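Journal club prep — side note

Before the paper discussion, L.F. wants everyone to see what a predicted structure for a comparable chain looks like in token form. Sequence:
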Amino acid sequence: MKKFAFTIFITLYSLQFVSAQNFTNNDKKVDSILKLVKTQPNDSVKVANIHFLFDYYVYKDTEKAKYYADEEIRISKKINYDTGIANGLYNYGVYYNTLDKPDSARVNYLKAHDIFENKKNYGGMFSASFGLAILEFNYGNHNEALKLTEKNIDIYKNKIKDSVRLAIQYDFLSGIYSAKGNYQLAFINNLKAVKILEKTDKEIRYADALSHLADTELDLENFNKSLEHKMKALSIYKKNNDKYYETTALNDIGNTYYYLKDYEKSIEYLNEGLKMAKELNLIDIKKILLDNLGKAHMEINDYKHALIYINEALNITDETKNEYAKIETLNNLGQIYNSTKKSKEALYAFNKAIVLAKEYEKPSALEISYFNRSATYTNLGQPELALNDFKTYTKLKDSLFDIEKIKQIEELRTIYETEKKEQQIQIQKNEIDLLNIKGRVNKLQRLLLGLGLLLALIAVYAFYQRNKRNKLAKEKAESDLEFKTKELTTHALHLAKKNEVLNDLKQKAKVLKADADSDPGYQMLIQTINFDLQDDNNWENFSRYFEEVHKDFNTNAQQQFPNITSNDLRLMALMKMNLSSKEIANILNISSDGIKKARQRLRKKMGIDSNDSLEAIVIAI
């Protein structure tokens, strides 16, 4: 019964690889998506939602899943969305694979693969290639399945760098090696998958890897260890309400209890699995569970129920037209008939099993058929035929033993070559890494040198441009200052000259007034001159020009000499311009004596000694 675990292993993968996500029974999410797709416009988002619905229903209702695969392709064609078309074709492959229709599955996987390849969609290529690998495995083409899987491992190690999908491929590779009888290689790849997945948050993927590790332990006849892994996987599936994988785990646990000769426990778990398989309409798994229940009931001599289960399993192989899967069921049927003394019926079953085992080159099943047919001929009183079958059985057994030894040698050689290849790859990677580091260093050095030269040129150019701008700005500032200084000087001299003229005019008006017997016109002229001489606007205009040339002069003077007044500042401003006492007197409209007195007062307020130059101190402010 051990080989049934491998069929479960592959059936499980035929659904498992549909997505890199863990799809669980998330009814709320499904309900919301079902409502959403009814109102969504036809676009890639709607196609993605329909794809999700396919993945959800393929575990539960294959016909609903088929409907969503149809919808995915129909809408994708309508909007010219090639990736959606490819995904839909891929889903067709999954659908037909679950129905055990390999030709239809293969055609759709290949179509999907071609589209993905044209789009350079490595993830899609991987999925289609994986589907094909599963088909090849299901029909005994293990070497072809091995090639496809190794190709996928290369994609996920070197092109996409996806640790989860890489682990899935290692896990699947272990199943291929198990089927080939290379259990050590199977165990090695199982462990690779488990070690990768236990470090991720992909809980269900981890459970899958544990489940397959349990299958390998079963092959190595480590039954208790196998049971431990299966029980842990089952608890994870139940926690996530993952009915499909829960069903497969129940079958495998029942199978393990069978080998532990605890037939009561075996039947308990197998019945629970069968109930779920019927509810979920999982045909292939249902067939395997029925086979296993038949064998378990044979061990407790309950041939009535054993026959019911085996015949039901045989009916499923007829419906699905899976002749390969029929071989073991026919052997089981023949053994039941032998045990119940129905030799003719047993002979019919073994004859048919032998024909199929030869056709599909299944020597292990052929060995069982000849051994049991030998017993059937004995029961029928045909000792010569019984002896011939027993001799054939012995040859097959010896041949299988030799094959087993050859497999073990091949396995050891493969392990050695794999390790050697991995070492060579690691050495090459180290050399490449070293060359890459040297290349990066050289490239970095050249880049830094080039960058340094470029920065130096930029710096020189920037320095030149800055100096040029500074020189131009300085020349402009000097030119502006010179112009403003000239303008200020001109304004000051003009003011001094104007005041001088006005004062002369005023004196003449006074003389004319005296000669003209107090003519009121002269008095008005004198008043007008006085008003102009005292006009603050003249001084404000001058101050504005002065501040443009001598910025912050008044502020600095007041900070250094707090006792000075606004009239003192006027005097100091005119002294700053290096004007003569006469020019200052004319501008301030005071006499020469008045200038002397003003200078003395200013010197006193500033606290300047008589030996110090008042002009020099003022000019320095």
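L.F.'s comment for the group: The two ends are 111 Å apart (CA to CA). Keep this in mind when we get to the figures.
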